[in-house]
């Protein structure tokens, strides 16, 4: 074979390899939904004081912006679903390349995983997927090797190339998918992803045991690596066990974490062995593994209180402080909005709307000759005691009521307000609330309520208090 | 073992890696056992069936040479024997079903699993025996070479149906390692894989759903599904042929071409010289030509003195229909093609005269395009029978194409492919059409691997990277994806 031919083959191979690998990397990024780590990368360098790392337990229970509100320290929650401790270790290593946090709060539950680790074979958007979105580095390679030691259920390419899992998204890509590669992906939520659902666990009691159970050796190895890494970098590390509906085996592992923490001089915020958070088991849970936003408030407050005892001081530029202020405001607004959605009766909804900045409440009465005097009485009672309280006759005579900027508009005044906002109302025999061509009404006889956000120019929720449901709230 | 699997890629790479370093005899043994292993990957039991066919036809050929006086009887006996096997495995249940339907009987069906590729290797082996009978081929006495000719893994289960004169000698040559062959072969394998996993399998999802729910489909959706099926079949079968030819090429073997841009044909005569060429020429060599030139009809009446071309076409397409599957739908498909061919042959001369009289240039681009579209559209019509499960299914489908009785048709993207997928499918199909036109206009009979491999290093690199990326990014695979076997495996 002549030399020229060999050179030609090398050229072909090189062009193929460069274009293929480049294209693969791009496609992989494109089809994988934005991951926590990508959002994290887009935070300004050295802007984070408190780094929370863990799985879904911390993700949905520790609000970074609330910690900022409570402690004055800029916090970030770098947690993903089903994140084992070995992934957390490499996330911390990655985070330390860009940030110099003074405190790391590590979810102890990540150390509970073993070889039966939840691999995400049939579940999307878990830590396995997002870990691959780390920038190519030795750290990523080490993480992949670490995962390979434990997670052996999938083929190599399925595990390390998200494209093999998400490639069918290629024909469903949105504008957002294309943009994410080029834009700032940081979010005001700062990694916090609360649950706004509720599951009743009344009657549940934490198991009591003093026994211990060994952690999976690999998990313990990585837990110790994190402890040593933080010591080496002079970072205050605290382990936290956010409550879940634990069984005795889990508590044994919690006891083991106590031992490891004690042996290594690490603080352990154990909120799971007893009800130190004073959780309401009928109200504060989203499901057996996760607290909802109400439970999260309690957990965040407890973590904040602990951080305050450390006496750490934050020093950041006005720009960074401003970012967290904006994030905090966003978080507050988002959380109140969600709570409005969850409200169970009109008076609670009204109270929350009243508290929420920039939210107007549009109430349309759908009569169409179907409402009787007794219905007007019921609507009167519904409004009574809230900011919507008004004379019975006004309710009988009008079909549109708007609460905005602390006052109630009725009749023509209310219609004028809707017109200025671009909200079309058809009251009477219907109760349509049309905004941007979408109808925000269930079209039931009685009161149909829509929440309009002045700051976002959108209707973000609607509820009906209808005759057919005896004026109890109905929503989807 | 499927071609579109990592196991096959591994087998191929390992075979190529070892093959060139072995002496000739060992090469044959290695290829033979590799081929057996490849076939046993589907059903080890049926390997015995293939061995039986090999033994019968190998012995028959030797006996034909040895006992020339009885060669006709030996040919008939051996051919009937292997066709009986084919009948048992492929047509017995079909025959029982047909008897039950016609005579209203209740005969029980047998539990028979169709051996993969049985029609292919039986046709190939019968062709060999006929060649020996005609003295057109020297009888192969080396059992390993002959067994390899029948079982050579690249073309074993879905062709091309090779001829002994093309293949047997190749097993006796010690092929030298030629990187150009490896490169050309790899190009074909890659293009084949793209056609299969990116195009054919994508279209299959939509086609299957529309054919299953044709009553809920709008006429437009039904038309789209038939066009998609035309490209599904083409990409699926052409993919197999390309991977087969490419794999063989990497080992130094040259297999016959099986497709030559068939959807650019201007007549059905041309179409059948471009589509499944190895089967068409098999029918030509072993059924049509002997029938037409021996003209058995002449014995019935002297008025049939002319070579019976039309009857020959009818017989060939009837057999072709049966060859494709044990279902009356395939027979109807074959008969429609026979009709097209007969009509085409009948109007050929008047058409030529008409063009001459009106001074119409046959190569006028508009005429070419209209011919191609007409042939494709008529061909698509036959695909309804080819794809349908029963004749009733096919007729129901055709009826719904014209009269949609369903109160409400489902949207086109309700059949397994989202709008994005449908747009991508149309782009992929357009890419095939455009690339075939470019090849047809500029390169004529040159195969795509050679066209690519003549380009400079950069363009080749771009093409290879594009092919690899297409497979990974656009391919149909994944944890919950149910793989589609190659369509022609069932034949």
Describe the protein's architecture and organization.
The complex is a heterodimer of chains A (about 475) and B (about 500). With about 475 residues, chain A is α/β, with parallel strands linked by helices. Chain A folds into three domains: about 1-30; about 30-340, Rossmann fold; about 345-475, no CATH class. Chain A has helices spanning about 5-30, 35-40, 55-60, 65-70, 85-100, 125-130, 140-150, 155-160, 160-165, 175-180, 215-235, 250-265, 295-310, 320-340, 345-355, 375-385, 390-395, 410-420; strands at about 50-55, 75-80, 105, 235-240, 265-270, 285, 290, 360-365, 400-405, 405-410, 425, 430-435, 440, 445-455, 460-465, 475. A six-stranded antiparallel β-sheet of chain A has the order 10-9-8-14-15-16, sandwiched between helices. A five-stranded parallel β-sheet of chain A has the order 2-1-3-4-5, sandwiched between helices. In chain A, helix 12 links the parallel strand 4 and strand 5. In chain A, helix 4 (about 65-70) packs across helix 13, helix 5 packs parallel to helix 11 and helix 14 packs antiparallel against helix 15 (about 345-355). The longest helix of chain A is centred in the first third of the chain and has 29 residues, at about 5-30. Chain A starts with a helix and ends with a strand. Helix content of chain B is about 70%, strand content about 0%. The two termini of chain B are about 15 Å apart. Chain B has about 500 residues and is mainly alpha-helical. Chain B has two domains: about 20-175, no CATH class; about 180-490, no CATH class. The interface of A and B includes residues 24, 165 and 168 of A.
């Amino acid at each position: 074979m002549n030399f020229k031919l060999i050179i030609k083959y090398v050229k072909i191979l090189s062009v193929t390899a460069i274009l293929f690998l480049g294209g693969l990397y791009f496609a992989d990024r494109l089809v994988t939904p934005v991951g926590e780590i990508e959002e994290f990368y887009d935070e300004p360098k050295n802007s984070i004081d408190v780094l929370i790392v863990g799985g879904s337990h911390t993700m949905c229970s520790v609000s970074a912006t609330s910690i900022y509100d409570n402690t004055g320290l800029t916090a970030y929650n770098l947690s993903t679903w089903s994140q084992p401790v070995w992934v957390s270790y490499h996330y911390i290593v990655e985070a330390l390349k860009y940030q110099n946090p003074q405190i790391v709060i590590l979810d102890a539950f990540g150390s509970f995983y073993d070889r039966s680790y939840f691999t995400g074979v049939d579940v999307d958007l878990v830590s396995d997927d997002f870990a691959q979105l780390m920038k190519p580095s030795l750290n990523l390679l080490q993480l992949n090797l670490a995962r390979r030691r434990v997670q052996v259920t999938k083929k190599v390419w399925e595990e390390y190339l998200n494209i093999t899992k998400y490639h069918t998204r290629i024909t469903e890509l949105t504008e957002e998918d294309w943009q994410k590669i080029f834009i700032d992906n940081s979010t005001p939520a700062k990694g916090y992803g609360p649950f706004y659902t509720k599951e009743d666990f009344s009657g549940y009691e934490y198991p009591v045991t003093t026994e211990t159970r060994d952690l999976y050796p690999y998990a313990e190895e990585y837990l110790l690596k994190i402890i040593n890494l933080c010591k080496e970098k002079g970072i205050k590390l605290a382990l936290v066990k956010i409550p879940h509906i634990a069984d005795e085996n889990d508590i044994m592992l919690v006891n083991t974490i106590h031992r490891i923490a004690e042996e290594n001089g690490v603080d352990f915020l154990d909120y799971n062995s007893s009800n130190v958070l004073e959780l309401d088991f009928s109200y504060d849970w989203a499901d057996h593994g996760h607290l909802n936003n109400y439970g999260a408030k309690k957990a965040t407050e407890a973590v904040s209180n602990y951080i305050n005892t450390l006496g750490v001081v934050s020093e950041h530029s006005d720009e960074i402080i401003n970012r967290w202020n904006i994030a905090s405001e966003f978080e507050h607004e988002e959380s109140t909005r969600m709570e409005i959605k969850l409200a169970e009766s009109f008076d609670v909804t009204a109270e929350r709307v009243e508290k929420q900045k920039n939210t107007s409440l549009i109430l349309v009465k759908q009569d169409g000759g179907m409402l009787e005097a007794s219905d007007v009485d019921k609507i009167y009672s519904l409004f009574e005691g809230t900011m919507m309280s008004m004379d019975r006759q006004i309710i009988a005579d009008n079909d549109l009521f708007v609460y905005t900027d602390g006052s109630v508009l009725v009749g023509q005044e209310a219609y004028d307000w809707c017109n200025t906002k671009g909200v079309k109302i058809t009251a009477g025999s219907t109760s349509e609330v049309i905004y941007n061509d979408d109808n925000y009404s269930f079209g039931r006889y009685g009161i149909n309520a829509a929440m309009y956000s002045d700051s976002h120019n959108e209707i973000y929720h609607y509820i009906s208090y209808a005759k057919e449901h005896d004026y109890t709230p109905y929503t989807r | 073992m499927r071609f579109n699997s990592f196991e096959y890629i591994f087998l191929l790479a390992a075979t190529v890696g070892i093959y060139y370093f072995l002496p000739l005899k060992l090469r044959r043994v290695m290829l033979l056992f590799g081929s057996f292993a490849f076939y046993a990957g589907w059903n080890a039991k049926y390997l015995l069936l293939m061995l039986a066919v090999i033994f019968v036809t190998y012995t028959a050929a030797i006996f034909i040479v040895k006992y020339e006086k009885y060669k006709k009887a030996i040919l008939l006996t051996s051919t009937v024997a292997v066709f009986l096997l084919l009948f048992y495995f492929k047509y017995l249940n079909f025959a029982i079903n047909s008897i039950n339907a016609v005579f209203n009987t209740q005969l029980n069906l047998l539990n028979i699993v169709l051996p993969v590729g049985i029609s292919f290797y039986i046709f190939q082996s019968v062709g060999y025996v006929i060649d020996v009978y005609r003295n057109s081929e020297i009888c192969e006495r080396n059992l390993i070479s002959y067994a390899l000719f029948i079982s050579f893994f690249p073309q074993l289960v879905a062709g091309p149906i090779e001829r002994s004169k093309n293949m047997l000698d190749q097993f006796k040559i010690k092929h030298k390692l030629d990187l150009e062959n490896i490169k050309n072969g790899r190009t074909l394998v890659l293009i084949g894989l793209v056609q299969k996993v990116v195009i054919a399998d994508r279209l299959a999802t939509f086609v299957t759903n529309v054919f299953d729910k044709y009553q809920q489909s709008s006429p437009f959706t039904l038309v789209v599904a038939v066009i998609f099926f035309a490209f599904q079949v083409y990409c699926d079968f052409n993919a197999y042929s390309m991977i087969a030819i490419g794999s063989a090429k990497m080992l130094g073997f040259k297999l016959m071409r099986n497709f030559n841009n068939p959807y650019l044909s201007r007549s059905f005569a041309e179409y059948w010289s471009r589509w499944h060429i190895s089967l068409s020429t098999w029918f030509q060599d072993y059924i049509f030509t002997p029938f037409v030139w021996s003209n058995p009809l002449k014995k019935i009446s002297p008025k049939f003195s002319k070579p019976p071309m039309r009857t020959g076409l009818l017989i060939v397409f009837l057999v072709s229909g049966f060859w494709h599957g044990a279902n009356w739908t395939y027979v109807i498909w074959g008969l429609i093609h026979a009709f097209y061919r007969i009509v085409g042959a009948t109007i050929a001369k008047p058409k030529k005269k008409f063009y001459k009289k009106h001074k119409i240039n046959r190569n006028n681009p508009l005429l070419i395009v209209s011919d191609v579209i007409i042939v494709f559209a008529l061909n698509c019509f036959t695909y309804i029978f080819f794809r349908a499960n029963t004749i009733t299914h096919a007729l129901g489908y055709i009826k719904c194409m014209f009269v949609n009785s369903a109160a409400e048709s489902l949207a086109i993207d309700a059949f397994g492919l989202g709008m994005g997928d449908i747009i991508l499918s149309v782009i992929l199909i357009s890419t095939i059409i455009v690339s075939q036109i470019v090849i047809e206009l500029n390169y004529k009979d040159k195969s795509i691997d050679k066209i690519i491999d003549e380009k400079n290093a950069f363009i080749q690199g771009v093409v290879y990277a594009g092919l690899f990326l297409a497979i990974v990014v656009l391919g149909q695979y994944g944890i919950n994806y149910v793989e589609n076997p190659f369509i022609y495996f069932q034949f």
